[in-house]
């Protein structure tokens, strides 16, 4: 029978071993919140992603393929980018953002295979699968017809993309997690290329899209966004 002292020593040794092993065990406690593959960046969305407020690293170009990842805790994103770049040096990091609760990374390449390799390295590091991400929730959507002059002015003061013109229809769309605004914007532009991306807010508690154009275009865009978000596999 073990003595009390021996039992305590064994327990202490076990705790010490577990503690020392943690840094080398990858990031098993890291939550994969978003794992978004975006095939073929559309022209307006790529330009939005290439602005200094988005592309703090290498700006993407139209036609590039992109992967956007969100994890928690936020600083775990440093392990994520390390895994992606060491496994696939050809991939370009565009956005690396550490907010209060979540860490966000965007990587891109003209080659879909390169992006896929980076993604697999990330998933392996997180010991996760793509479908472990959160399933997006649609929080709100609406189409406002014939935007007035004053309404356009006040929205244009805070936009990050193209100007909202008075008289156009405006689609507003909100979802969570916020990063799903990225795939929503790109998908909307793909099916209705003559629309105008006014703002894409993809970081924060919720994602928000402001898309303008003729009523037919923004209606098609809303239907496509809803279809894409509802088709995402997640928990």
UniProtKB/TrEMBL annotation:
Keywords: Plasmid
Ranges of residues in domain BMC circularly permuted: 35-136
Keyword Transmembrane helix among record annotations: no
Cellular compartments per GO CC: bacterial microcompartment
Region (Disordered): 1-29
Compositional bias annotation for Low complexity: 1-23
Record keyword Transferase present: no
PROSITE patterns assigned to the protein according to its UniProt record, in alphabetical order: BMC_CP
Gene3D superfamilies per record: 3.30.70.1710
Classification via InterPro entries: BMC_CP, CcmK-like_sf
Protein name: BMC circularly permuted domain-containing protein
Organism of origin: Rhodococcus jostii (strain RHA1)
Lineage: Bacteria, Bacillati, Actinomycetota, Actinomycetes, Mycobacteriales
């Amino acid at each position: 029978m073990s003595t009390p002292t021996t039992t305590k020593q064994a327990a202490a040794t076990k705790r010490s071993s577990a503690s020392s092993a943690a840094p080398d065990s990858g990031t098993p406690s890291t939550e994969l919140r978003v794992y978004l593959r975006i095939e073929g960046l559309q022209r307006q969305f790529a330009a939005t992603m290439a602005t200094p407020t988005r592309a703090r690293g290498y700006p993407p170009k139209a036609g590039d393929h992109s992967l956007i990842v969100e994890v928690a805790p936020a600083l775990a994103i440093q392990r994520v980018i390390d895994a992606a770049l060491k496994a696939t040096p050809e991939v370009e990091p565009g956005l690396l953002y550490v907010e209060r609760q979540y860490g966000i990374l965007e990587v891109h390449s003209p080659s879909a295979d390169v992006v896929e390799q980076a993604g697999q390295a990330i998933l392996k590091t997180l010991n996760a699968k793509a479908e472990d991400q959160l399933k997006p929730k649609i929080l709100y959507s609406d189409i406002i017809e014939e935007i007035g002059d004053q309404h356009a002015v006040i929205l244009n003061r805070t936009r990050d993309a193209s100007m909202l013109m008075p008289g156009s229809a405006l689609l507003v769309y909100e979802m969570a997690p916020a990063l799903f605004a990225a795939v929503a914007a790109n998908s909307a532009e793909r099916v209705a290329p003559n629309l105008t991306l006014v703002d894409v807010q993809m970081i924060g508690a919720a994602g928000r899209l402001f898309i303008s154009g003729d009523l037919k275009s923004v209606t098609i865009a809303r239907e496509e966004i809803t279809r894409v978000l509802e088709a995402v596999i997640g928990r």
